[in-house]
Design brief:
This protein is mainly α. The protein is about 40% helix and about 5% strand. The chain is built from five helices and three strands, in the order αααααβββ. The longest helix is centred in the first third of the chain and has 18 residues, at about 5-20.
Length: about 160
């Protein structure tokens, strides 16, 4: 191996090691599969920005609730995709989606709030809903943003 190749490998090693190490509060195992399925079910048709924003909401709710377990906040009546199914069936169904692998293997490696740089304002949102409806909790509230078929809120208490 020549000197240049060796130098490039040595420079890349910390990046490679970091890529395989998850942050301490990133979802793992079954929790990761359920969270990925909820993200796909809620916004799988709204692009990666929409899916990342749903993850931001899940992570924000977990953080505000004092837990690092994201699966504790993805439950029926909080995420409508779970209202008429079980987490197991949702994972089975959503794992076939074309973006499931990206969400599971890439998006969920990152913990948005602990790595916030100020470039993604949606990590402050705790609620969202389909733009075609207005749930009771959103009446009289001004959305922070509207995109990906959803309205996003950071002012719900």
């Amino acid at each position: 191996m020549d000197t240049r190749t060796m130098a490039l490998l040595l420079l890349a090693m910390p990046t490679i090691a970091r890529a395989e190490t998850l942050p301490p509060d990133a979802p793992t195992g079954w929790e990761r599969a359920v969270v990925a399925a909820v993200i796909i079910g809620e916004s799988g048709g709204h692009g990666r920005k929409g899916m990342a924003a749903v993850y931001e909401v899940i992570h924000r709710r977990a953080t505000k609730g004092g837990t690092s377990c994201h699966a504790q906040v993805v439950k029926r009546k909080q995420f409508s995709v779970l209202n008429n199914t079980t987490p197991k069936r949702l994972v089975q169904q959503m794992s076939r989606h074309r973006e499931y692998k990206w969400v599971h293997d890439n998006l969920l490696k990152f913990v948005p709030l602990t790595s916030h740089t100020g470039t993604n304002p949606y990590n402050r949102c705790t609620h969202y809903h389909a733009a075609s409806i207005t749930p009771y909790w959103a009446k009289g509230k001004t959305p922070y943003a509207t995109f990906g078929g959803h309205k996003w809120y950071n002012n719900i208490r």
